[in-house]
Amino acid sequence: MFTIASLSDFSVEDLEKYAGMLPPEEFIRYNSFRNKKAQNLFLIGRTLVRTELEKKYGLPYDIHFEIEQNGKPILKDSNIFFNISHSNDYVAVAFAKTPTGIDMEKTVEMPRQTLLSMGEKVFSPKEMSMMVEWADRAKDEELQKIFTQMWTIKESFVKATGAGLAYSSLIDLIERIADEAEFYFEEHKYKCSTKCFKGDYFISVTVKIL
Predict the structure, then answer these.
(1) Distance (Å, rounded) from C-alpha 19 to C-alpha 188?
(2) Residue where a domain terminates, one of 75, 97, 119
(3) CA-CA distance, 160 to 100, in Å (whole number)?
(4) Average pLDDT, the chain
(5) Which of the four, 18, 33, 77, 141, has the lowest number of CB atoms within 10 Å?
(6) 8 and 88 in one domain?
(7) Which residues contact 9 (CB under 8 A, 6 or more apart)?
(8) DSSP calls for the chain
C-alpha cells in the first residue's frame, strides 16, 4: 500500500507542530536543509511514515529509525518496510511486509531526442528497443509519459532491491505501458504496480513476493 500527501495539506502550524515532534537526530537533519521546500518535504515524509505506522501497525509515533549508509531510514529487526519518494509538492510513502520501493515523478517535458539520449544511459538495450519502437509511433507528449513511467518502474525496482540502474531485462515482460498496470519480474520474485496520478504524475511501487 502507499499514501500520498501534498505540501498544501499542511498548514504552517501543522509543520511547526510536527517539526517539534521529530527525534533530536532528525531535527538536526531537518534544520540542515537550506531550502525551505526541501526541509518541509523531508518533514512531511517522516510525518507520513510515523502516522501510518501508528495507525496501520500500532507502533508508537515516536519510534526511532535506523539510518542506512545511503541515508535511507528503516525499522531495524522488523518485518515492516517502507520507502519514501518526493516529486515537486508531493510526498509518497509505500509500506509492505517485505522490501519495497516507490518512485513518483512528474512527466518530464523534454525534446524527443533528449529523452532517447537519456534513455540510453539508464535503460537496458531491450528497454531502449521498446522505447524506440514506441517513439516511432508516439506523439511527443505520449513519449514523455512513456519515459517517465519507465523511469519510475525502474527506480522503484532499484529502491526495493538495491540493484543498479543498469540491471537488464527489468521490464522484458511488459508489452506496452498503460496508465495503470501490474506485473511481475525478476523470475516473479518482485511485483510492480504502476499508475498515473492526476494526469501528469506517475507512481510505481515494487515489492518483494514471499
Answers:
(1) 41
(2) 97
(3) 4
(4) 88
(5) 77
(6) yes
(7) none
(8) -EEEEEGGGS-HHHHHHHHTTS-HHHHHHHHH-SSHHHHHHHHHHHHHHHHHHHHHH---TTPPPEE-TTS-EE-TT-S-EEEEEEETTEEEEEEESS-EEEEEEEPP---HHHHHHHHHHHS-HHHHHHHHHHHHHS-HHHHHHHHHHHHHHHHHHHHHH---TT-TTTTTT-SS--SEEEEEETTTTEEEEEEEETTTEEEEEEEE--
Rounded Cα distance, 98 and 190, in Å:
10
| Pair 112, 168 in one domain | yes
Looking at the structure, tell me whether residues 22 and 83 fall in a common domain: yes
Using the 3D structure, point to which of 97, 130, 161 is the last residue of a domain: 97
**pLDDT tens-digit profile of 136-161?**
888 889 889 988 998 898 899 889 98
pLDDT at 168: 47
Lowest mean pLDDT across 55-69, 165-179, 186-200: 165-179
Q: How many domains does the chain have?
A: 2
Q: What length is written for the chain?
A: 210
Share of the chain above pLDDT 90, in %: 60
What does the pLDDT look like over 53-73, one tens digit per residue? 999 999 999 999 998 887 789
- State the Cα torsion 110-112-117-123 to the nearest 10°: 90
Q: Does residue 118 sit in the same domain as residue 200?
A: yes
Same-domain pairing of 66 and 155: no
Q: Parallel, antiparallel, or unpaired: how do β-strands 2-6 and 66-67 relate?
A: unpaired
